[in-house]
TrEMBL record:
Keywords: Cytokine, Signal
The protein's name: CXL14 protein
Keyword Cell cycle: no
GO CC entries: extracellular space
Start and end residues of each Chemokine interleukin-8-like domain: 24-86
Highest taxon above the source species: Eukaryota
């Protein structure tokens, strides 16, 4: 009986941890290559315990698709250039 209770408790804990992982780590799939001119908002989220790397979430706007959110790979050269460009753009007060 004690073994069954321990197994159920362990299963419950595993289910809770799996649900927390889905909430915290949004970037399971990385987004496409983007145009800098379509960027509306850029968010850099810190690394959570369940995520392998930090999350860079960019909000794009196009006439055809409207507003969309994508995750970017922080190690790609295009993402590094986007971060530099966005910081300069924000400092100019635009």
């Amino acid at each position: 009986m004690k073994l069954l209770t321990a197994a159920l408790l362990l299963l419950l804990i595993a289910m809770c941890l799996a649900s927390v992982e889905g909430v915290k780590c949004k970037c399971s799939r990385k987004g496409p290559k983007i145009r800098f001119s379509n960027v509306r908002k850029l968010e850099i989220k810190p690394r959570y315990p369940f995520c392998v790397e930090e999350m860079i979430i960019v909000t794009l706007w196009t006439r055809v698709r409207g507003e969309q959110q994508h995750c970017l790979n922080p190690k790609r050269q295009n993402t590094v250039r986007l971060l530099k460009w966005y910081r300069v753009w924000k400092e100019k007060g635009r």
